Amino acid sequence: MIDSPAQPANYSRSDYKAPEMGSIMESKILVSEQDLINTYSKEDQFSCQKYFEYKKLVQENPTFGYKKAAKLLGVKQGSTRWWHTEGEKKAIPNPLKVVQKLNEVGLIPFTEKHKDAKIIFNTLGTLFGDGGIDCRFNTVAFISSDIRDIDLWQEDLLKIFPFAVGKTQIVEGGEYGHSYNIRCYDRAVIRFFAALGAPVGDKVSTKYSLPNWIFDSSTESRIAFLDGLLASEVSVPRFRGDPRWAWTKRFCDFCLGLSKIDALEQEHREYLKEIKRLCATIDLTTTPNVRKELCKPTYRKDGNISYGYRIFFQTHHEKVLAFNEKFNLKYAKDKKERLENQVVLAKEHKSLKLIH
């Protein structure tokens, strides 16, 4: 029942297998009880395995006490003693406490049919952008310079996980300008997103990839996920229009940028290819090149050097307008407003051209 634990850097790959021909993605389980257990250490997974064996043993042999059960299972009596206890003092392994909490709100098993699936995929997307899970699984967080985004992210999170009320914190700060960091330290929330495929640890120095299941999900789910990711990382395309010159009526600077340490350049390029492939499934077309910003290295405290990498989206008039219609950029209100302004500007220039 217990799989080998994945390293934090590879959680997004997990052990997911693509659905077989003819299967219905909407009913495919994306997060199961075992997926949650697999985000824990070997020791915790072993404890869960022994707990399940204990439950089966005492069910078949109701007269067995905790000492005999411990001897037969090869575990310490201290463990089976608490498992054997009834009432409020009864204990279960930590991963199963998380499973129990998520079960109570209908999140296990989790499929695309869940009533809050769109919000969950949207939130998951932000964890590939300006959000994340720390390497010790203590917090899941989201950063923005706009308090409106922070408030909305928190509102959505608490709608999905009502038991996390009182377990969030908003911190103001920012080394390069004012920003807000909202953190949630409820273990069930953290493990749920880790099991769903969110990267764990410092994304700049960690190898990770998109969850395989996202490519087989519905168009609506893919758009929701990308909306969260792009809200964090996409630039706002600028419209360059001069009434005197037809060739200047175009958009430019439409790209997505992510940083990575130099040692993981090849892995990062593969990840960017995955993003491009996912974008292509919803008709968001990118150009072939990936640009490495060699002139702007960042010297990190851990001794590594990181560079920014950018992929570019096609800037045809209709492509940018379609992007604006398709994506709300839910957790980047200021960015959406600036995009809307550029679209209005482009439409005005187009109308002016038709008049002339």
Automatic annotation (TrEMBL):
Database matches in InterPro entries: Homing_endonucl, Intein_endonuc_central
Phylogenetic placement of the source organism: Archaea, Candidatus Iainarchaeota, Candidatus Iainarchaeia, Candidatus Iainarchaeales, Candidatus Iainarchaeaceae
The DOD-type homing endonuclease domain, residue ranges: 123-284
Annotated source species: Candidatus Iainarchaeum sp
GO molecular function, one term: endonuclease activity
Segment forming the signal sequence: none
Superkingdom per UniProt: Archaea
Name this protein carries in UniProt: DOD-type homing endonuclease domain-containing protein
